[in-house]
Automatic annotation (TrEMBL):
The gene is mutL. One of its GO terms (biological process) is mismatch repair. One of its GO terms (molecular function) is ATP binding. The chain holds residues 1 to 342 of 621 of the full protein. Keywords: DNA damage, DNA repair. This is DNA mismatch repair protein MutL. One of its GO terms (cellular component) is mismatch repair complex. The keyword DNA repair applies. It comes from Ectothiorhodospira mobilis.
Amino acid sequence: MSIRELPPQLINQIAAGEVVERPASVVKELLENSLDAGAGQIRVDVEQGGMRRIRVRDDGRGIPRDELALALRRHATSKIADLADLERVASLGFRGEALPSIASVSRLTLTSAVAGAHSGWTLRGDGGDRFEDPEPAPHPVGTTVDVRDLFYNVPARRKFLRTERTEYGHLEEVIRRIALSRPGLGLELVHNGRSGLRLPPATEAAARDQRVARICGEPFIQQSVFLEQEGAGLRLWGWMGLPTFSRSQPDLQYFGVNGRMVRDRLVTHAVRQAYRDVLQHGRHPAYVLFLELDPALVDVNAHPAKHEVRFRDARLVHDFLFRSLHRALAELRPGAVPAPAA
Ligand code: ADP
Ligand code: MG
């Protein structure tokens, strides 16, 4: 076979292989876009665990009519313009791949309205790079992305989808992670027309505690301490579980870097070291922690789905995490442990 350039839809489908594994990954990408658009309230409607339909509606800044087609085009983004931007990127997205990838493996419609426009506009993705003209559609300022029949045209992928229940479980976990990382965000999840989760924005400390309790359970919030530490340009905040709340599995460990939830080996290691002397062998700490630092000091372009990050100064980050948590644990004299509420 001679060398040929692949058609756009196939290129997008190949890219989709990296970022769109299942309904939960679609939800993650769409929510990240809503957050990047400055949304304060997001509603997620799903049917059949997201396999049949995922609709994400936000009140962000919207997309102007003339940019709708661009939003569905590969490598088109409003978030970076050059390498310098990439190296200090603070948005969750920047690759310009999510929407075209999702559109190439589903039936996607993008509807949006910006402030000051007479109307909203809607555009259907076709998976490639040719689009009809947008059509007027009523919509408040913000964006709705409607994704139906995920993998309808990729049987090989569809085969890997699990039961509705399993897919919904993954999707809920994505929502939980984002809800934890943005306490000020109002989030609503509706499954098959029934309310799954409804989280009002939480700005005050008590409301934030309550939100964490809703997501991680009442026992966690009762047996954890709130921590806030700063040093060397780094800031760590969040809830660290008391040694008495150790787990047999590492299933309650949330860590965010600059508002992005990550799974990072260096972080896990630093936390484990800090807890080493206070946890029995084989037990795992529970935590919901957030690290904030200059975006230029962390490289998020290490993985298409951005689950992993690379710290420019890994040592500094590791030591800061270890020392902050270790000190906080050392300060927990037996008497300082809050008694569980009656
Ligand atoms: P990326 O997020 O990497 O830029 P996407 O394919 O996810 O790439 O989105 C492409 C572009 O579409 C974004 O850069 C943004 O300008 C626009 N966009 C996508 N979703 C939204 C949204 N919910 N609100 C406003 N703009 C959006
Ligand atoms: Mg995106």
